[in-house]
Each structure stands twice: as structure tokens, then as C-alpha cells.
Amino acid sequence: MKTIAVLGGGYAGLRMVKRLTHEKVDAHIVLINDNEYHYESTQLHEVAVGNKEPSDISFDIRAVLPDSVDFIVDTVTSIDRDKQQVVLKHSQPVAYDYLVNALGFESESFGIKGVDEYSLSFNNIDSALAVRDHIEHTLANYATSHDENDLHIIVCGAGFTGIELLGELVERIPVWNKQYDLPQNGITVDCIEAGKTILPMLPENLSSWAVKFLADHGITMHSGTPITEVRQHSVVSNDKEFPGNIIIWTTGVQGSHVICDSGYAQKRNRVVVENNLSVKDHPHEFLIGDVAAVPNPDSGRFYPTTAQIAVAQADCAAENIVALLAGKPTHDFQFSSVGTVCSLGPGSGVAEIDQMGHWKFKGHKVGLLKRLVNDRSVLELAHVKEMLASR
Ligand SMILES: Cc1cc2nc3c(=O)[nH]c(=O)nc-3n(C[C@H](O)[C@H](O)[C@H](O)COP(=O)(O)OP(=O)(O)OC[C@H]3O[C@@H](n4cnc5c(N)ncnc54)[C@H](O)[C@@H]3O)c2cc1C
């Protein structure tokens, strides 16, 4: 019997396992993930500020896996592609016939000086909790330090993650003010962004509404301000310096470092895959989710890395593995977006939805929409748990 090794229990990896088991493939499926649990990466920013607890955004993977799937909790250190083995930190290597690499994303510093030393980023539950600890510890420290910088939060980057984080901060700051008995308007938040336009992927009226919402809630946005260095107590953009003792880095992500550690031809730990999502000259290897650079034949560019697209890629790659096992031809990845939802805290946001027409929403309706879909762009992914059980 052939072995299919699926690496990563995120959106792409779990969806892959679900599709393969649903198809009742005649193969041994092994899922390898570094935790017993799945966490919804799309909600990490809520944990980072304390508006949600880890248990709100995670669940036990074993509880949703069929008995036929072998689940190994271990860290993948590399892939020996010649021997067709996955190398693990603690256990024996796992041999495979088909490989699905869905190891997801890590934060990207773009080589900017001081980022790793003096700012915090989040790409899993532990790092989100570390951000929260740092914020709370620094705010609490103000009582003895009386250092205004303890109350200055700097968010580096105004992509989706940065903007959604700012929205959660708007919600949380009044709670911290009370909790640490801070002066009214004592906590300040600056967001520093290299791009001139905020949320350029949304129509102008929605992105400017989001920027105004944040400004009305006391967030100062500095667009067109490229960060050149992060220091222990400040962020520098050329000759400007923004002081603050809480520096959160959200400027972008790269794929898992396992990609470069395994000798793939890669850029920012992403591999350009074939149209059927396999790796060139390795038809039994598939890369999906944030480790894959997938060409969009319509635009000539790569698809963005989102959970919505990761799930669609898992469906396509699963169908292709089923086809290969049956000696049939594979098909190319095609994707049509259901739209984009950017939350601004639990009760507001902006959204553009392409389902049964073209819809634009802003304000509290998006809070409701977000609660319904629990994600900015993944209508079909409303809850991974139900997603695994359904279809
Ligand atoms: C704050 C935030 C909000 C976002 N909001 C949205 C949104 O609303 N909508 C949207 O579509 N996208 C959103 N995204 C993007 C989305 O989260 C990613 O595109 C998506 O998580 C990619 O899915 P994935 O399965 O490839 O990887 P991941 O979700 O990162 O899953 C990777 C899995 O692999 C495991 N893993 C990692 N390394 C190893 C290792 N070495 N060994 C073993 N296991 C390992 C991890 O624990 C994890 O379980 C958001 C991202 C962030 C950071």
C-alpha cells in the first residue's frame, strides 16, 4: 500500500486529509504536525491582544481524524527528497510515496536590522501569547517606571494582519486602561507602513472607511514610511524615529524554513509549483498553502497566500493524488475568490463579497458577517471542525 505523508495540520493539511479520507483512497495516510491541536491562524491577532483565548481558536486534531489516519505529533526538520523520507526532530524518519507539504508560514523580517531582536511577531499560539505577555507586562510596568514609552504601541505594517490587529487593539485598550489604572488616552498606537495606500486590494471607499475608523479611534497611521531599523525602544524610518516599548511586527510572511532546509529551489521559502500543484520533476510531491507560489494564469502573478486559497489548493491536490493513484491524468488548479473580509475588531470591518452578485459592506454588518464566517475571506471554511466533518 502506498503512503501519503501530509505535513502540517493547518488549513491546507487538514483539508487534504479530509478530502483523501472522504475519497476513501487506498493508501496509508500519515499526518505530521508539531502540536496535538489545530489553531486558526486567521484569528491569532485576537489572541495576541487578549480578545480571545487559545482555546477559542483551536481544537484537538485527533478528535476530528478518522482512525485510519496515522497522526504523528513531531516537528519536521527537513525532507530527504532523494530517499523520499520526512526527517523528524524526535521520531524515526517517515518514508513516503506521495508527499503533501503544507507547513505554512513564518514571519518575514526582510533583513531589516533589529527586527528579530527588538520586535515581536506571531505565527502560532505560543508567539501570539508572547505578544500578549509583552504588552501586558510593559503596560503594568508603567506604574513603577512612569516611562511614557511603556504606553506607546507601534504596529509595523498595515497589511491585513496589521489592520486587523489595530482593530482588536481599539477594542482592547479601554480594558487595559482600567486594568492597569492608566491615564485616559495614555496608550497611543502608531502604525508604520511603507506603502502609500492602505488595503489597496479593496475598493477605495472601503479602504478609506477603514483608515478613518482607525483614526477616529485614536490610531495614528504613517503610510509611505518605510522602516529602516528597529531599535530596543523605537522604530526608525530614515531620519524619523518613533519611540515605543511595544513593537509588533506584521509586515509580511514567508513559507516554512523547512523548505530551504530541504534544498528546494525557493524564494522566501516558497516553491513555484506546476499548474497541478506538484513540484517540477517530482510528480509525487505537492506543495499547498503558504509554502506554495502558485501562478495565476489569468493575471500572470502568484495567488496571494490566504486560508481560502490554501483550502482550494488542498482540494485540487487531493483530487490529483487520487487521480495519480488510479493512473488517471491530473488537472490544473483554478480558483475563484468568494471575496474579502477585513475585520476591525469584533464589531466592525469592511468586506467585498463576490457571491450571487458583487457586494460591499462596511461597519457593524461586517462584524456580523465576520461572526458568521469567522474569517476574512473564507465563506466555505466557516469552522474547520465542521469542514472536516462535512461534504
Ligand atoms: C493574523 C492573521 C490573520 C489572517 N486572516 C486571514 C483571513 O481572515 N482569511 C484568509 O483567507 N487568510 C488569512 N490569513 C492568512 C492565513 O492564515 C494563511 O494563509 C493560512 O493559515 C495558510 O494555511 P496553511 O495551511 O498553509 O498554513 P498554516 O495555517 O500556517 O498551518 C501550518 C501548520 O503546520 C504546522 N507546522 C509548521 N511548521 C511545522 C514543522 N516544522 N513541523 C510540523 N508541523 C509544522 C503548524 O503548527 C500548523 O498547524 C491570516 C493570517 C494571519 C497571520
From TrEMBL:
Transmembrane segments: none
Keyword Calcium annotated: no
Stored InterPro entries: FAD/NAD-bd_sf (IPR036188), FAD/NAD-binding_dom (IPR023753), NADH-Q_oxidoreductase (IPR051169)
Entry keywords, A to Z: FAD, Flavoprotein, Oxidoreductase
Entry keyword annotation includes Transmembrane helix: no
EC number(s) from the headed UniProt entry: 1.6.5.-
Molecular-function GO term, any one: NAD(P)H dehydrogenase (quinone) activity
GO terms classed as biological process: aerobic electron transport chain
Residue ranges occupied by any FAD/NAD(P)-binding domain in the UniProt entry: 3-314
Cofactor: FAD
Pfam families in alphabetical order: Pyr_redox_2
Record-stated family: Belongs to the NADH dehydrogenase family.
Protein name: NAD(P)/FAD-dependent oxidoreductase
Classification of source organism: Bacteria, Bacillati, Actinomycetota, Actinomycetes, Bifidobacteriales
